[in-house]
Design brief:
By secondary structure, the protein is an alpha/beta fold. Among the domains are: 2-78, no CATH class; 89-136 and 155-184, no CATH class; 345-421. Helices cover 20% and strands 36% of the residues. The strands form seven sheets. Strands 16, 18, 20, 22, 23, 25, 27, 29, 30, 32, 34, 37 and 38 form a 13-stranded mixed sheet that branches. A ten-stranded mixed sheet has the order 17-19-21-24-26-28-31-33-35-36, with no helix packed on it. The chain has a four-stranded antiparallel sheet with strand order 1-2-3-4. The protein starts with a strand and ends with a strand. This is Polymerase.
């Protein structure tokens, strides 16, 4: 900064040190007599250690027309911003031998191809399954003061080895430790599981299955039977009112007709042709090619029912991020509940907490009634018999326990309700028609559909559920 009797040059450096500007401070009466040289400007900049990226044309303009920049900042130096590093990635070389990754592929018109699905890939012992491509550190920048500016490094990917796999010493690659099938389980852990095959139906001739690996069933799973796997479950037929539980994914070729019995639960994805009167839960996605009818379906991320029919009628569908279908409801306005924006387990936990609170409140009421009766006896007689004194102590202790339980439940309820309010980005997408009778819930926002919509995407905008036409 340089000062004379007539003027002063202020230098301002931005907080990130990527820009420097100058401002002329002078009295109105002195403007005609002000003479500023480029040397004056460079000296002011040097006093603030501004040495890099100085724009000579801006300095020249400042000196030629100083009155223009009285109390007005002129940028005279620009630093070079750092180039952030790129995030690392994980490559899966084993997929090259089996084609693209499992699951349906979205086509150009937004529909999903459910017909060309790859199988769960078989791998051999020693085969390379995953390779980490490291993040880059980026390129440093330069501040207007000449000092380097460190770039933001890319985020390193994390290999998550599961069961029956090994890593190299540098922990950059994962190999199969056995022959088997690849399975992603909870939190994207990579596993290889042995295979247990059933060449027909799961019935009384086979019984329930609990296998540490992947189960392939070439027939149907009948009413009342249970199949549990630490890997994936593949059913080439249909599933009736049975219980299926897999830490990986569940694929059912011919659909689920559960008659409100049993349940389907997968740590990763559930994929099938249709779901009818069933209870289905997936940690990641539920992918259905034809229809979801009168069922309870929960997915940590997405529920996708966008095949050629792609219809959802009745029931309760809960997805952490998005629900997609071609048609929702029907002309009879069949009640259908769609909930997005919050992980389904939070809604279930809140419901469970509310039931527990109701029970605790009722038990407190009964305990207080008992204590009140004993207090009346004490006031009437001046003392309590030995058995009544023991009962009083027991009820008093019970009340303390119940009060603590209610306090903890109410605290957790507030936490869950806060999470429900703050839910992340969410959407409900309609690729053909949505009929009246639909109840939408985004976090804690509720919207009832009272007229028909076509090709619409519903999101939360400015605190309200809003629909926009899908292109």
């Amino acid at each position: 900064m340089e000062a004379t009797r007539q003027f002063q040059i202020d230098v301002k450096v931005s907080p990130d040190k990527l820009e420097a500007g100058i401002i002329l401070r002078a009295e109105e009466k002195d403007l005609e007599h002000i003479l500023i040289t480029e040397k004056d400007v460079y000296q002011a900049l040097e006093q603030h250690r501004v040495t890099f990226g100085i724009r000579k044309d801006a300095v020249r303009e400042f000196c030629l027309m100083p009155a223009k920049f009285v109390n007005t900042m002129l940028t005279v130096a620009n630093g070079e911003p750092p180039v952030p590093g790129q995030d690392g990635t994980i490559e899966y070389p084993y997929l090259a031998s089996v084609g693209e990754e499992n699951g349906p592929k979205e086509m150009e018109d937004g529909r999903v191809d459910f017909y060309n699905l790859t199988s769960i890939p078989n791998v051999a012992k020693g085969q390379l399954l995953a390779r980490k491509k490291p993040a880059t550190s980026g390129k440093p920048g330069t501040a207007v003061t000449g000092e380097p500016i460190a770039p933001k490094a890319g985020k390193e990917p994390v290999l998550k080895p599961g069961k029956n796999v090994v890593q190299n010493q540098e922990r950059t690659m994962i190999y199969a430790a056995i022959d088997g099938q690849v399975s992603f389980t909870d939190k994207d852990k990579l596993n290889v599981f042995p295979i247990f095959e059933v060449n027909g139906d799961v019935d009384f001739g086979v019984g329930n299955i609990d296998f540490v690996g992947t189960v392939v069933i070439r027939g149907n799973v009948l009413n009342g039977f249970r199949v549990k796997a630490s890997g994936d479950i593949r059913v080439l037929g249909s599933v009736e009112g049975a219980e299926l539980e897999a830490q990986g994914s569940i694929e059912i070729k011919s659909g689920i007709v559960a008659q409100d019995k049993g349940s389907i639960k997968a740590g990763h994805n559930v994929q099938t042709s249709f779901i009818q009167n069933a209870n289905v839960t997936a940690g990641n996605q539920v992918i259905v090619s034809q229809s979801i009818m009168f069922s309870t379906v929960r997915a940590g991320k997405h529920i996708i029912c966008n095949g050629p029919k792609g219809i959802i009628i009745g029931g309760i569908l809960q997805a952490g991020e998005k629900i997609v279908a071609r048609v929702y409801g029907n002309t009879n306005a069949t009640p259908t509940v769609l909930e997005v924006g919050v992980k389904p387990e939070l809604r279930q936990e809140l419901s469970s907490i509310q039931k527990e609170l109701q029970n605790a409140y009722e038990n407190l009421r009964k305990t207080d009634q008992g204590l009140s009766v004993l207090n009346q006896i004490l006031q009437a007689n001046g003392e309590l018999p030995a058995d009544k004194r023991m009962m009083q102590v027991k009820l008093a202790n019970t009340r303390l326990v119940l009060e603590k339980e209610v306090k903890n439940l109410e605290a957790r309820r507030k936490e869950v309700e806060a999470e429900l309010v703050g839910g992340g980005p969410a959407a409900i997408e309609v690729y053909s028609n949505m009929y009246p009778g639909i109840k939408m819930t985004f976090g804690k926002l509720v919207h009832f559909i009272k007229h028909e919509y076509a090709r619409t995407r519903f999101i939360v905008l400015d605190g309200e559920i809003t629909g926009a036409t899908l292109m």
